[in-house]
TrEMBL record:
Keywords: Cell membrane, Membrane, Transmembrane, Transmembrane helix
Transmembrane stretches, start-end: 12-29, 41-62, 74-97, 109-129, 141-160, 166-186, 207-230, 242-261, 282-309, 315-336, 348-367, 373-395, 407-425, 437-455
Localisation: Cell membrane
Organism: Haloferax volcanii (Halobacterium volcanii)
Pfam family membership, one: Polysacc_synt_3
GO cellular component, one term: plasma membrane
Topology class, membrane: Multi-pass membrane protein
InterPro entries named in the record: Poly_Biosynth_Transport
Name by which UniProt lists this protein: Oligosaccharide flippase family protein
Keyword Hydrolase tagged: no
Length: 470
């Protein structure tokens, strides 16, 4: 598999999908306001939390087993059989307690939640099967299509008077198309399920599910707890800040997704030195866009939220700064986490995740009640710091981890110079329009890139990025 090509494909698709999502959220937030956006985000949060028992780590398990190249059809059919049981149970429970769920969401959406969980699990399983086939790059278009349907259909429905349910209907449509297209692209053919293969999947998934829980907790638990203690407007503002910060991590996730099946294959061949090399070379491109994004957010967080989404979203300015800083840690974590899973050590990733999840849950419950949405951002940042450190510690038990310290320090220096330049410019010219904000961001990007490329090792890495560099 061509790692660089797959990473680039995923990065381009992630950028395209993120741009579509960003434009969609911007339009929807302006048209609907923070409270209806909060209803939609709570729906997504509940959908994300329900995905934990619905999947039980099986998506990652089937990706791992298919990437090993043996009994692929049996593993796939066995996975589908295993996943069907919890999905049916969850759907029954949703319908049984739909009044409670509707009250929490603030709208009658329980029935749509049943449809959403089925479509989501089908679509995501198809994506993970393609990744297991070492066809990571071919998954790139699927997310773009889903986001495009969500934005376009959502805008049409809002035009005809729908509120938060417009975003949910369009989400279902996009996810359904993603599922159909994904399964059409898969080449693994179903075979008769097998109990030994089920045991093999569960042996992996019982640890992988803990890492999955960590991912879902990280993405949605803060939103869910904000929904319990604060208002839907607070949910809308916080999650909007989260979505903006998430754009900075797209390249990191693309690289991590690309290296997993290859690391898995090298692990099967006991090629440890190649795995060490790919981890070292992946860290620099993974972190190189996240650091300047944090420093830029320090200067422009209020303008980004206020001008783009509306004045009521500026209550999350401090949240945006904290989450942008936390993404620096995540850019390293995604590499360590996927490497641990790729060398078939999900048990250690699970240990780190359990500690981080418990810390995250406790801090969210305590800090949100005291400090509001800024408390949720602090809880996420602290818990993810611990998670990143523990993943690196456990990975170091199995191989040498070299960290590109000089590259990272040069990126920090370039970012500081950029931030100082923006502060000076901001003192002379106030940012009052979206156009002026775009110009400021463009100037900042130019300053950062110019200084960054003065450092020869980074300039060389950018110029000669190829499969041998990843």
């Amino acid at each position: 598999m061509n790692l660089a090509k797959s990473s680039v494909k995923l990065f381009v698709s992630n950028i395209s999908g993120a741009l579509l999502q960003f434009l969609g959220i911007t339009y929807f937030a302006r048209e609907l306001g923070a409270a209806p956006m909060g209803v939609f985000f709570l729906f997504q949060a509940l959908l994300g939390i329900l995905a934990i028992p619905a999947d039980f780590g099986l998506r990652g398990a089937v990706e791992k087993r298919i990437s090993e190249g043996k009994s692929q059809g049996i593993f796939l059919s066995t996975t589908i059989a295993l996943k069907s049981i919890p999905i049916v149970i969850i759907c029954i429970l949703i319908l049984t307690f739909q009044s409670v769920i509707n009250n929490y969401l603030g709208s009658d959406l329980a029935t749509l939640l049943v449809i959403a969980i089925v479509l989501q699990e089908s679509a995501q399983l198809a994506v993970f099967v393609l990744k297991g086939e070492l066809r990571v790059g071919e998954t790139a278009i699927l997310n773009v299509v889903r986001q495009a349907i969500w934005v376009v259909l959502g805008a049409v429905l809002i035009h005809y008077g729908f509120q938060a349910d417009a975003l949910i209907y369009s989400l279902l449509a996009g996810t359904g198309l993603m599922a159909c297209w994904g399964w059409y692209k898969c080449s693994v053919r179903l075979k008769k399920p097998s109990i030994p293969h089920a045991q093999s999947l569960l042996d992996y998934s019982k640890f992988n599910v803990v890492s999955s829980i960590g991912g879902y907790f990280y993405s949605w638990m803060d939103v869910a707890i904000i929904g319990l203690f604060l208002t839907q407007s607070d949910v809308g503002a916080y999650e909007t800040a989260w979505r903006v910060s998430a754009i900075t991590i797209l390249l990191s996730k693309a690289i991590a997704s690309s290296i997993f099946p290859q690391v898995s294959q090298w692990d099967a061949d006991n090629a440890i030195e190649r795995i060490e090399s790919v981890i070292y070379n992946a860290i620099t491109p993974s972190i190189i866009l996240v650091i300047p994004a944090f420093f830029g957010t320090l200067v422009l967080s209020g303008e980004i939220l206020g001008l783009v989404f509306g004045p009521e979203f500026t209550i999350a300015s401090g949240v945006l700064i904290l989450l942008a800083g936390e993404k620096i840690l995540q850019s390293v974590h995604v590499i360590f986490g996927r490497a641990l899973q790729g060398i078939n050590k999900p048990k250690f990733a699970a240990k780190a995740t359990v500690i981080a999840v418990l810390l995250n849950l406790i801090l969210n419950i305590v800090l949100i009640q005291i400090y509001g949405i800024i408390g949720a951002a602090v809880a996420t940042t602290v818990s993810f710091s611990a998670n990143t450190f523990l993943h690196g510690y456990y990975l170091s038990k199995f191989m040498k981890i070299k960290f590109p310290t000089r590259n990272v320090l040069w990126s920090i220096l370039s970012s500081v110079i950029m931030a100082v330049g923006l502060v000076g410019l901001k003192d002379m010219i106030h940012v009052n329009t979206i156009t002026e904000l775009a110009v400021f961001i463009g100037i900042g990007s130019l300053i950062y890139t110019s200084v960054l490329l003065l450092y020869e090792p980074i300039r060389t890495k950018v110029a000669v990025m190829s499969p041998t560099n990843l």
